[in-house]
Design brief:
Number of helices: 5
Number of strands: 6
Distance between the termini: 31 Å
Helix content: 40-55%
Structural class: alpha+beta
Strand content: 5-15%
Length: 174
């Protein structure tokens, strides 16, 4: 069961990395357009750096020590649900980096995004969950929690403010 879970987490992280690599220029352009911060080329480089270098589940291996006094096994365990607050300056890079680390550890993550990057952050999370900006069918393993168009939060605000809602995996296939 532990090996199966580890492989599934690896699939999710690999899908996020693949989508980022494939659509890195689009993500960068959307970030500059919505936030009006930075340069597209810098954002391309930052997104690629995060996609390639952020440690994933491959570093979370059990460690065993043995000796005259017995055996010690160290295995890392998930914390649970983590809240992450993201800035407007590098929204896609921050979300991707945090998501890779938190999902690799077996945690769930909820993002509270900066108001200046709501649309970009929503689209990015949906696309990492569904497999791409162009709507190609991707990994379905992350699609349990993602933005739902037309949803309203407790305050009754429009869908741009109600970021996360439980939805069916079928959203990615539509």
């Amino acid at each position: 069961v532990l090996v199966e879970r580890h492989l599934r987490l690896g699939e999710m992280v690999a899908a996020m990395r693949d989508v980022t690599r494939k659509h890195v220029r689009e993500l960068a352009q959307y970030a500059v357009d919505e936030t009006t911060f930075g340069r597209v080329e810098d954002k391309v480089n930052k997104n690629l750096l995060v996609a390639e270098k952020t440690p994933g589940p491959e570093i979370l291996r059990p460690i065993a020590f043995t000796g005259d006094n017995g055996l010690t096994l160290i295995e890392r365990a998930p914390y649970g649900v983590i809240l992450a607050v993201t800035p407007c300056t590098n929204p896609t890079e921050t979300i991707l980096c945090n998501a890779i680390g938190m999902i690799s550890g077996g945690n769930a993550v909820v993002f509270n995004v900066h108001p200046a990057a709501v649309k970009l952050s929503s689209v990015s999370m949906r696309d990492w969950a569904c497999g791409g900006l162009s709507g190609e069918r991707g990994s379905e393993v992350m699609a349990d929690w993602m933005p739902r168009k037309g949803s309203r939060g407790e305050t009754g605000q429009s869908d741009e403010k109600a970021m996360v809602a439980p939805v069916s995996r079928r959203v990615c296939q539509a």
